Amino acid sequence: xxxxxxxxxxxxxxxxxTLCCILVMLSGVQSEAQETRAxxxxxxxxxxxxxxxxxxxxxxxxxxxxxxxxxxxxYDTDSLLxxxxxxxxxxxxxxxxxxxxxxxxxxxxxxxxxxERDAAINNFTKALVLAKNLDDSALTLRIxxxxxxxxxxxxxxxxxxxxxxxxxxxxxxxGEKEMLSILNENIAGLYESQEDHEQALVFYQKAKxxxxxxxxxxxxxxxxxxxxxxxxxxxxLDYAMFNVNRSISIFEKHRVMDWLAYAYETxxxxxxxQDKYQWALYWYRQGELxxxxxxxxxxxxxxxxxxxxxxxxxxxxxxxxxxxMQAFDISNDIKFPEGTRECxxxxxxxxxxxGNFQKALAFHEIYEEIAETLHRLENKKSLTLLKTRSxxxxxxxxxxxxxxxxxxxxxxxxxxxxxxxxxxxxxxxFIKRAEKIQKKLNAELQAKKEILEEHEAALVDSNxxxxxxxxIIGHDLRGPIGSLQGLLQMFSxxxxxxxxxxxxxxxxxxxxxxxxxxxxNLLSWGNSQMNGATVKPSVFALESLVDDNINLLxxxxxxxxxxxxxxxxxxxxxxxxxxxxxxxxxxxxxxxLKFTPxxxxxxxxxxxxxxxxxxxxxxxxxxxxxxxxxKLFKKxxxxxxxxxxxxxxxxxxxxxxxxxxxxxxxSIWVESVLRxxxxxxxTLPKAEDKYSQAS
Length: 695
Known about the structure:
Blueprint: H1 2-49, H2 59-71, H3 77-94, H4 97-113, H5 117-134, H6 137-153, H7 157-174, H8 177-193, H9 197-214, H10 217-234, H11 237-254, H12 257-273, H13 277-291, H14 297-314, H15 317-333, H16 337-353, H17 357-374, H18 377-421, H19 424-492, H20 498-502, H21 505-530, E1 538-541, H22 542-552, H23 554-559, E2 563-566, E3 573-576, H24 578-594, E4 601-609, E5 612-619, H25 626-632, H26 653-663, E6 668-673, E7 677-685, H27 689-694
Parallel strand pairs: 2-4
Antiparallel strand pairs: 1-3, 4-5, 5-7, 6-7
């Protein structure tokens, strides 16, 4: 048994050595190919400049500058920027709109690689306007794809998806199959980032089918590399290995070195999922060798983070820490939230293992915060609606095909009747019969379409409620509970002492208080949304309810040295549901405490207004601008900000207040001035004599 192990180890060592030599040779060939292509373009530029009538405004010369800028993107970014600036300057002088558009596109690529999101989006947008005016569909599609990808890098998947869908519609209309494949593959990436693997697979399969129709090996290999990464995440490691091996052979054959580096990294990821850390490191190192000749910071993030995980698995914590920090720093430099999230989690694991609990907790909080941002409500909602629309389109297409098949059968019967009988009456009969069946089928199709649309509307409403609940639970409950769970786990495992644990007690108390308040609001809102809230009015004294809530929140007010004053008279009798109004008052006072700085003041008043009491809760807090006020009480609004002492909020309280006040026959509004404070008003019915007697 030992001899076999030694023999296999020696064989593996020889294999590693041989493959390393091959990779070095391949890397050299790629470098030569790159230099040859760049030299060719430079030679053409030099030849163009040597012409007797040469001018920098010559469109051929401008196109060569843009093409050279594209060629050296991942090898010399500074020259990329210089060339694109010159191309833009000369294009403007020549009034050459296409040259300007391509130059803006190249500059957008430069800023994208540097992580300067606003500058990249600005340049892509300028390029897109020019391309659309030219009615150049091929150029327009490339720019739309880059712009959508930039929004995805920034974590704004909703905007990214809108641009991808615009590109898909144009590519289908213009018959641009290659760009249609790329756009579908990038949409798959959005679903993969949201961990919706099944839906990501649907779009990857669409891209793969288009690549097969095009017969393009390189595009197919790119899709297979991405599929391999997805299969690795899904735990389908055999599929992952099959796809990545096929893509590697194609990239090596065509010397596509940037994608070859990614394929090597993906193969390392597959071995990492199998806990084969030595093999994972081997393939990660091959990717690292290729990156020495590439200027691609974004590509290094997953590579270094994967190496950090492999070293952590092997117990080499120092190298794990080093590679994870390198990836973390690059992600922050180029402002890439997905990379920062994954690296923060790796650093959390490394520091937790080494007993650095403060650092571990800090990295874990970074991970949770970015994860919540990337999975925010509008991203999930947009992707869910696309999935719903895809399912609806598929069902509609199936119904149309069934209708066409039925009509084809009827036409066959008519043709057979013409041939066999050749009788005008029978022909007329079959035609009328076919028309009747067609109308019936069309009516059935229309009815089924209406049913599907009703189901879609119901699904949208259901998704809005669920995603809002999940967003609140994920943002305001998962974070504090996760921290509490992590601390308790480390304490129960003996990874921290009792004294270290007690240092976190104040933070835990604050988190638990927040969870308790949030749960009260969440349960009340969830009950009203799902089951419908029943109003049970009765006569009660508003001043008692206000005093109870002042006492309940007195500790929080004391911690910020805020004075709460009730100026309600002793006869403020209300005819409403006391439990619901209790929630309204508690939320408004709590909200005022949250946005009032230390040594501030909160005043509660009530005045009679015909048959209503007009109640006001005034604070001396930070106030709000007009834009925020307009959004505050709109349907499905979920405005959530941090208070003056970084207090968290769900954005649910004011929605709950509005709903409950209106159910009790009142209305609610706000008046506010920035840096001076806000006053929330709401009205409630007065308790008339007949109500008093009934009570």
